[in-house]
Amino acid sequence: MDKNKLIFSILILLFFTAGMEAQPIIENPKKPISPNAGRVLQLKEVMRIRDESPKFFFREPYELQTSSDGSVFVKEINKLFKFDPNGKFIKDIIKLGQGPGEITTEFEDFVLTDNEIVFLCATLNKILRTDMQGNLIQEIKLREKRFFKLLAYWNNKYFLLDFPMRQEFLKRSGIIEYFQNLFVMDEKGAITALPYAVSLKDYITIHQRGGSPGIGLMPITGLQMVRKDQRYLYFCHTSDYLIKLFDCEKQEVIRQFRREYSPLKFPSVEKHPDDWPKYQNDVQRLVVHKDNLWALTSTRDKKGILVDVFNQEGKYLDNFYVPLMTTWNLAYLPIAAHGDILYVMHSDEQENIVLFKYQILD
Fold first, then answer.
1. SS3 string of the chain?
2. Which of 7, 141, 176, 315 is 20 to 30 Å apart from 27, CA to CA?
3. What whole-number distance in Å separates Cα of residue 252 and Cα of residue 238?
4. Does 184 have pLDDT greater than 90?
5. Among 112, 198, 173, 188, which Cα is nearest to 143's?
6. Domain at 287, CATH number
7. pLDDT per residue over 258-305, tens digit each?
8. What is the dihedral of CA 29, 27, 219, 5, to 10 degrees?
9. Which of these, 118, 83, 120, 90, lies nearest to 105 by C-alpha position?
10. Mean pLDDT, to the nearest integer, of 338-347?
11. How many domains in the chain?
């Protein structure tokens, strides 16, 4: 790309991004309206789902979703384990391979509808739709463009993020900012760019290894998202406290909100470069509980993890501590709710990876 085209592309991106962000931000105070805020959420452990040889093993789980009927789906590398609402293992949904309905290496994302699963397989550059048992309904090859994130599937439209090449940023060590652009694709494969880009930051380390240059990458910010339902999607992608609500029907961000929050410094035991940011990301994880949004914050102490509660209008309703003493990085903690049930995956007392099922008593 020549210099003039690059400058023009950046200006267009900034124009669209600024236009979307011009929407007023709903400001909330430091304290929620609930008179019982700051309590510890009461959880009752119902069961623990452990490895069942030879049916399944938990090795590197990194996403957890629940379907409308209460089934639970656990994503691993090259695997998608399905459990029924009672915790019984059903099957591994994934079929490995390069043929129709098959996935090779890693699939990037999956979206659950009432009766379908939608997969994005970035390495094969295709989208799969299956029934809830993994039987193929449709396969779409993506020929015009490569995508690396499936955000939602609504009204026969796929909402996707690209991953622009970043070679121009990989010339020095330090923090880089890059953008993932949002697109919508219809059922015939026609792709339309939407006027929105998600900004993210990584820390790049350039080093020599065996006489050849090497590159190390550590995420600083990441895209945290959760689907309220098939139409609405909550997400955040900045270090500062800011949550956005995307409407797939309107194809735009319809609401932005935050609350007054004091950022927390990284613990001294953290080993980061000298120019690493001083503060942790304010919002670490998002969970939908019934009609409300839970924002798991960076605040953690002996009571657990501080969780803020917002309604769909962006109003700060409540907060409480979830008594989870996990050592896992919250940004990658598999967690999901269904009704009064909370599922969390982390290590038990023997350091075995376990899927915990809790009843929410609060």
1. CCHHHHHHHHHHHHHHHHHHHCCCEEEECCCCCCCCCCEECCEEEEEEECCECCCECCCCCCEEEECCCCCEEEEECCEEEEECCCCCEEEECCCECCCCCCECCCCCEEEECCCEEEEEECCCCEEEEEECCCCEEEEEECCCCCCCEEEEEECCEEEEECCCCCHHHCCCCEEEEEEEEEEEECCCCCEEEEEEEEEEEEEEEEEEECCEEEEEEEECCCCEEEECCCCEEEEECCCCCCEEEEECCCCEEEEEEEECCCCCECCCCCCCCCCCCCECCCEEEEEEECCEEEEEEEEEECCEEEEEEECCCCCEEEEEEECCCCCCCHHHCCEEEECCEEEEEEECCCCCEEEEEEEECC
2. 176
3. 18
4. yes
5. 188
6. 2.120.10.30
7. 999 999 998 876 677 888 899 999 999 999 999 999 999 999 999 999
8. -160
9. 120
10. 96
11. 1
- Domain boundaries, position 175: 3-360
C-alpha span between 33 and 55 (Å, rounded): 47
Please tell me the predicted confidence (pLDDT) of residue 22.
58
Buried b (16+ CB within 10 A) or exposed e, 242-265: bbbbbebeebebebbbbbebebee
Out of 27-31, 34-38, 102-106, 284-288, pick the least confident.
Answer: 102-106
The C-alpha atoms of residue 217 and residue 170 are separated, in whole angstroms, by 10
The two structure tokens encoding residue 281 = 């990301």
Closest CA to 40 of 293, 239, 319, 341: 319
φ/ψ bin of 38: left (φ > 0), alpha (ψ from -120 to 50), beta (otherwise): left
| Residue 157 tokens, joined | 């439209």
What pLDDT, on the 0 to 100 scale, is given for residue 6? 41
Looking at the DSSP bridge assignments, the partners of residue 149 are 161
pLDDT digits (tens, 9 = 90+) for 35-84: 999 999 999 999 999 999 899 999 999 899 999 999 999 999 889 999 99
Please give the mean pLDDT across all residues of the chain.
Answer: 88
Q: Report pTM.
A: 0.90
The single residue listed with the structure tokens 């008594």 is 323
Sign of the torsion formed by the C-alpha atoms of 291, 308, 227 and 329: negative
State how far the Cα of 90 lies from the Cα of 68, in Å rounded to an integer. Answer: 16
Non-local (6+) Cβ contacts of 301 within 8 A are 321
